[in-house]
Amino acid sequence: MRSSTTFLAAAATLLSFAAATPLEARYETCIAPQQWHICGDGWSGCCSVSPCKGPSIASNCPDQGSSGPRPTPTEDESPPATSAKPEVDEGWHEFCKEDDSQCNWNATFYHIKNYDEDYAKNSTVSFFVWNDSENTTELRRDAIGVFQNIPDDAKNCSLYFYNPGQGTYYGVHNSGALDMATLDTGDKEFVDAVGGKANWKSTAELLKDGKETGTLDLNNWGWTLGEKSLTNSAKFACKKEIAIHFTLSAPEEGSVIFDQVRKLGQVNNFVQRAGWVIKYDL
């Protein structure tokens, strides 16, 4: 079962997300900057902010007269003119070339838990971090992203995040601020440096010596920013394999989950790239 499926089962009443893949007709019913949302209590419709509330509060959209789908035109009116939508998403061309000659999207995410120190799962298609600091033990689920096959002549590496305005699974609950730190594995590859299995126990020493490279707040990305790239990363040394530790930085409970996409067709025929990417100069 994918991490996103598990997360939805546990927190569907708290999480709002733009409609997931594949692209469906409901994308055509909302007027920008609104997006389609589905809440755990059954509310669904168009809204420019998150309409989903906690389990004891009914979900609702504060937009005046705009929650819910666009009404079907009557015989006396015509639908508003809309510009043609691109056949594929190209927003990532803002900072990466088509051939990815200066970008690397090939991340494997090792998800680790401080409340289950032997837990060891990894994914190349989804990213999921969570914390619950209201609990006295400060439960945490972190991620370590390992990017491989960086060119030998790459320099001035930095970390970017990109999500298209539609077509991927994306969700944030409460805090979405992430601290990011590069990990020094010496001359070893990450998997070898942690003894062949990445879990909380085996990565503890590496995490202590992580070098902070920035903080990026992904809160409300899906319904306020749309198609855009973000970076708050300092330049760091490039090497053939780069490992980055991601952990939620805010003290309150929070979570971030999204699709990592490295090629067209991975999730649908619209999204070509999405998620974390290392950008560098040659």
Automatic annotation (TrEMBL):
Q: Which domain of life is it from?
A: Eukaryota
Sequence ranges of Polar residues compositional bias: 60-69
User: What name has this protein been given in UniProt?
Assistant: Uncharacterized protein
Where is the region Disordered? Answer: 60-89
List the keywords (alphabetical).
Answer: Signal
Which positions carry the signal peptide feature in this UniProt record?
1-20
Q: Does the keyword Signal apply?
A: yes
